[in-house]
Every structure is written in C-alpha cells, then in structure tokens.
Amino acid sequence: MGADPDELDYLRGIELLARELVTRAGEEGRLSHGPEPDDATPLQRTINKIASSVRHYHFEGDGCLEDRPGIGLGGAALITPGSLLGPAGTYERLCRLLGVAPRAEGWALWHTWDNKQRAHTLVTTRLATTEGLLENWSRGISSYPAAPERAHIAAVVRGWRGPIILSPDHARDLDLGGT
User: Fold this and answer.
1) What whole-number distance in Å separates Cα of residue 93 and Cα of residue 81?
2) How far are the Cα atoms of 19, 23, 96, 159 from residue 166, in angstroms, in the given order?
C-alpha cells in the first residue's frame, strides 16, 4: 500500500471521480447541461452542479488551496532559452528588457494590472503554476492563480512585455472570440 496522498493529490483524485460521474450521467441521459428540467430529481440536480463545477484542471498555485487572493490576468507566457519569441528577439534580449538574469529553467510572465488599471508584467518563478494555467486556457477554461508570494516575483515591469497568451476572459473582453 502506498503513502497517503497529499491534499492536492487527494483533490485531483476526487476531481477524476467527479468527471467519471459526469461522463456516466451523460451517457445515461441524466445530464441537462443547461436549465434544470421541471422533473429533475435531486440526484440529477446534484450531478448537474458537479458537472458545472468540475471544469478545470487543478495545479499547484491554482488558488483552490491557498489562503492568498487570486490574481486577475489578461495573459501569461513561459519563456525559456529555447523559446521562439518572435518580435521579442532572443531569450537573453527579453530577459534584459525585463530586468532579470537569464535562467536555465526560464521565467513565467503574468500580464496583469495594478490597482489603477495600469498594465504590468510580473516576472515570476511560478513555472508549474503557469503551465497549469495555460493548460486550462488552451481548453477555453478561465482560471486564475493565487497571487504569487513576494519571493516568487523577480521583477514587475510597467506595460505588457514579451510574448502573451490571452486568458479566455480577456480574449472575450477584446471581442476576439471564445465562449
């Protein structure tokens, strides 16, 4: 028998079971994916609630377990020495523009706003968090991470610098499509 799962592994296991429940309910015609029919049973209503809430992949720093508030992002990106950065140039050039030293593992860029709605780029070490965030966004699922701890922020740069993958919500706000 293996070791007890940590809290995140436990929650991922529950999420997988909930997804299985939703899949089976859909196969049996018990899932409405919309307004509840008048004759819906309490079980059907519960399954529909589960289906609408189990919509994203959980990852470290996703805000589900942290006590820190979430941070709204207009976009994010990962930059590494091997990244294709287009107009931004080379990884080293972009690091200079951001005011950080190049790192072999790279940096995560979080495009956000300050309390006066001025655009800023947070240069952070939260690579795994950003990978999970981008995984959700690639599926059109809006999710926002917990605000990074100060120790994870290498720089805050005025304006959005570097490559960007827009969050689904921000893409919709700009009328670029999405659901």
Assistant:
1) 11
2) 27, 29, 23, 15
pLDDT, tens only, 96-131: 999 999 999 999 999 999 989 999 999 999 999 999
Give 34-61 pLDDT, tens digit per residue. 567 778 888 888 887 777 666 566 777 7
Using an 8 Å Cβ cutoff, are 142 and 169 in contact?
yes
**Spatial contact of 61 and 129, defined as CB atoms under 8 Å apart:** yes
Q: What is the pLDDT of residue 55?
A: 59
- Please name every residue paired with 124 in a beta bridge, in sequence order, or none if there are none: 108, 153
DSSP state of 113: E
The token duo for 171 is 């893409």
Which residues, other chains included, contact 160 with Cβ-Cβ below 8 Å and sequence gap of 6+?
Answer: 74, 75, 111, 119, 120, 121
pLDDT score of 179: 47
Task: Write the pLDDT tens digit of every residue in 64-74.
Answer: 666 777 888 99
The two tokens of residue 113 are 């706003």
Instruction: Determine the Cα–Cα distance for residues 149 and 134; give it in Å rounded to an integer.
Output: 20
